[in-house]
Amino acid sequence: MNSAAADVPRPAAIGLTKRIPIMARRPRSTKPKKTTSSGGSRAKEGARRRAEQELPSIRKKIDGLDRTLVKLLNDRAKLVVEVGRLKRAAGMPIYAPHREQEVLDKVTSQNEGPLPNRSLEGVYRELMSGSFQLQQPLRIGFLGPPGSFSHLAAVRHFGTSVAFEDLHEIEGVFTEVVRGHVNYGLVPIENSTGGGIVETLDAFLKHHRDVHVYSEVQLEVHHCMLAQCEPKQVRRIHSKPEVFSQCRHWLATQYPQAQLIPAASSSRAVMTAAEECAKAREIGAEPGSAAIGSELAAQLYGLKVLFAKIEDNPNNVTRFFVISRTRAQRSGDDKTSIMFATADKPGALVSVLQVFQGHGINLTHIDKRPSGKQNWAYTFFIDAAGHREDPAVASAIREAATHCHELHVLGSYPRSKRVL
User: Fold this and answer.
1) Are 101 and 331 in contact (CB under 8 A)?
2) Cα 264 to Cα 168: distance, rounded to the nearest angstrom
3) Among candidates 288, 311, 174, 294, which has minimal Cα distance to 231?
4) What residues form DSSP beta bridges with 162?
5) How many Cα neighbours within 13 Å face the side chain of 206?
6) At how many degrees (to 10) do helices 348-358 and 391-401 cross?
7) Which band of pLDDT confidence, cut at 50, 70 and 90, is reported for residue 31?
8) pLDDT tens for residues 268-317?
9) What integer pLDDT is reported at residue 418 of this predicted model?
10) Separation of alpha carbons 49 and 257, rounded Å
């Protein structure tokens, strides 16, 4: 045994029979390791050189395809002009919802990607909008001012090549369609959160003999809190009553003390808030007015978005009707809207509903409004699957009328399959 090792004392408290030498460890450096970006820089430089070499040839191919597309689009437009000539000569409507549905269904069924169906549909809606302009310029009435959700739905449905007429009330949309001042009107009928739109239902009570439901539009609706002040300064909030109901829980949590001021439309509310903020600044006061509306309205009227997507239901969808003086043709996948007042006898409403059940017809919507003729008398609104010219639907309507004081078919139209 090495004498030096023998001189090392053994621990007495631990029964070790063998001495294990402890190796001294070098202290770890606390300095951060140097990293080099030279490898990453070289890779990016190589990718940049490849992009510069390959992009011109790819862009050249895109340019060639664009030339082909422009030619094909104009070839299509020439056929559209001929269609318009034939339609005008025959007195047929330029806008045909059943044909629109047919075109969109064919296009999306043929789509193999990578372009998503929603994008392709947007392209074709603009194509059809341009087609309207070539065949016969159209004027579309909606509940204004510009920036309302009705405006947004009208633009997304009809495209940007038609003329839009903003009207002050839903009643005004009906009136302008009846008078022929606009070709079509777009009105909200139902929201997935707030239910039926009473102004539209009441307008049908008055104008059901003069207009027809011609088409159906679904719009995804997201509400925003808009103002020109800080969130904590908001004291008054303007919007449409239906919008307040769709944001009820959020408002109760975030602004329980704020004054909620009803407006004829959400865009009118945004205009009012902007005007009040401007007036407050003129007199040196602190702005405290806000509105609930669309991002489009914020852009149009100079307000900033304080909070986006404040609706209680994130899947908030509003359904609109396109109204017309003419009837829509069958598409093969239709709905029929009916308005009726039952006879004054026990079980009259149940009898009407059972008629549709007996004919195997699904009812997708039911609503009611006071008749306006006598207290506690109501007019009912239903949507039935199928077209009024379908044998089963036609038979059910005739039989249901025997249980009603009055019954009116508001229109048959293609069922909306897409949320815009």
Assistant:
1) yes
2) 8
3) 288
4) none
5) 13
6) 160
7) low
8) 999 999 999 889 888 888 889 999 999 889 989 999 999 999 999 888 89
9) 85
10) 61
Write down the mean pLDDT value for the chain: 86
Give the mean model confidence (pLDDT) for residues 8-19: 42
- Give the type of residue at 184: Y
Q: Closest by alpha carbon to 277, among 301, 256, 261?
A: 301
Residue 42's pLDDT is 82
Cα 154 to Cα 248: distance, rounded to the nearest angstrom: 26
Question: What is the Cα Rg of the chain in Å?
Answer: 33
Residue predicted with more confidence, 195 or 274: 274
> What backbone phi and psi angles, to 5 degrees, belong to 405?
-70, -40
Rounded Cα distance, 146 and 296, in Å: 9
CA 30 – CA 404 distance, rounded (Å):
89
Long-range contacts (CB closer than 8 Å, 24 or more residues apart) made by 44-53: none
* pLDDT number for residue 10: 44
Hunting for tokens 């508001």 — which residue is that? 410
Helix (H, G, I), strand (E, B) or coil at 189: strand
